Amino acid sequence: EVQLLESGGGLVQPGGSLRLSCAASGLTFRSFAMHWVRQAPGKGLEWVSGLIGSDANTHYADSVKGRFTISRDNSNNTLYLQMNSLRAEDTGVYYCAKGLEASPNWFAPWGQGTLVTVSS
Amino acid sequence: EIVLTQSPGTLSLSPGERATLSCRASQSVTSYLAWYQQKPGQAPRLLIYDASNRATGIPARFSGSGSGTEFTLTISSLEPEDFAVYFCQQRRSWPLTFGGGTKVEIK
Q1: A46 with B98: Cβ contact below 8 A
Q2: For chain A, which residues score pLDDT lower than 50?
Q3: Do A106 and B44 touch (CB under 8 A)?
């Protein structure tokens, strides 16, 4: 069974930085696309970033481009999201999700999420 | 950016009834549309991908249809565990985008 476990969330001041981690198990991690999706409190889902294959093939939402960096460590089965210059509107639960084998931009399964709060 | 508009915002139905949820895209996504279910306090779960393919382990009462800009998720007979929020998502082009969601609530 594939399991994804996010960590690294917390309270940070505007302008600060956080690094989220997503530890994966039960899969050949290097073989799958991985994504980050966030959800502001009481709101809908927003795709944040995806890493398709190698680190060179990354994609970002316009709202985070230039501030967030997605990466992976295949030797440790871990996905990362480095978040810099954080803003209040970045507040929310951040989920990591695995891409389907045949269709890397469909998300299954998802982790349980980690809460990021940007506030002074 | 492709905008996905879901309707209605809330659907009030009784167990056993049929639910029909709509997702409209601002431009064609061909068949590159998925549906997710999210229950309170839980992560979303993939139900349908490529417009009409059920994901692993999803019951047959869930079905998807449509192409281009108009898509439908149908739950043929609502079970108590189906009351949740449903989101559509497209993968036709970057950035990947989600609809705003439809809440299916107990009438």
Answers
A1: yes
A2: none
A3: no
